[in-house]
Write a structure and sequence with these properties.
The protein is built from 18 helices and six strands. The chain is mainly alpha-helical and 452 residues long.
Amino acid sequence: MKQLYTLFLLLTYASWTAAQDPALFASIPECAKICTGRLIRASSCAGSDASCICTNTQLQGMIEGCVRQTCTVKQSLTAKNLSSTLCGAPVSNIGSQVKVLNITLFSITAAIALIRLLFKSFSDTNAGWDDYAIIAALLTGIPSVVLVDILLIPNGLDRDIWTLPFDSIATFRRSAYILPILYFLQIGLVKISIIFFLLRIFPRSTTRKLLYGTLIFTALWTVAFILGGALQCQLPSFYWTSWDMKDQKSCLNFSALNWANSLLSIALDAWMLAIPLYEVIHLQLSWRRKLSVSLMFFVGTFVTVVSALRLQSIVHLDRANNPTRDLTAIVYWSSIEQDVGIICSCMPALRKILVRAYPLAFASKNRSSRKHCDYGSYSHDHTGNEGGKETVEGDANRSQKSNTAPNTFHTQTFDVQFEQNLDNDESALVEMGNIARTLSRAHSSNVSEASL
């Protein structure tokens, strides 16, 4: 009886396939024929009504679920490919767009980083640890570009997995195993470069301690996720050899690993933005000057936005049954995040180049923010030339009287001079703010002592 029922189901399914392409019937796995025939028979569609069967999304979903449960992975992919062909499903392939984006954006990034390094080599400023970290991040991006261009795209990126040869799926998985490791390394190096830059411009002891702590955490965070990506399976080869589920191997959840990395990355970006903004707010500068400096740091929030968009693509991947197509969004946003991160870290260097190229424009802007203080005079002179000076000078003949204690006089004289090189104007800006803040505190303290 069971054999007769199976034959009946096959005949039902054959009536549909025969109406489309009889030659495909022999290629369809036996398990898929039984699932499809049984579900078509139970539906409202006639066995020969291909239009009804192909457009009935509920029926198609039930057939796919049955095939996944009763067939092997390879049989399921074969059946899905043949049924999609019979129904004339469109073939998705925007790999060429990803390729153009990947190569173009990396080329722009490499050019900007090269300009930064050339400027350092021809100026009076020596290369620092932030420059070395950016060089390492840029070099790490080269194999990422090659993997996407040479291996991922030709082997099925943004194509339906059931349309691919099985060998291509294995090659795709091998490349997809290496790519996240390079991503973790490159993003970590970009953050480390930014931290070294902040260490170079903020001299306050408390701030430097916070930055050194952030640097250590970022380094450990980077190493931890590199090891997590490399050791996510008992053996690395399990990742690309056990995709067909013939051998049940133990591997970590890839989406969970990416989830954790992205969430910590966004939190770390927010922390790294909060530190310089706190310092800038407490500098004794005009609100316009504070705003202009803060905007330089806010440029980095664009990387955080891209990280959030990448995180959204990870959410979709976790529910996906078509990884070669659904991984496209992660590759797309990862490429943007990596390159934009390097570009943002090079923004201060680009600003210095603009100062050199257009000194008069920047000089007039800075002269407008000249200040005078009660305890002396603060002059801010940018002439566009190297060796410009910022001075805080007290008048030796100027006396400050305390109104709280009659007949008590206190005289305080300041003579502070700070040399500023345009190649280090960020640190000079912070230094001058700290000098003004220190002198203000000293003035308040001495007035209090005089009143005693």
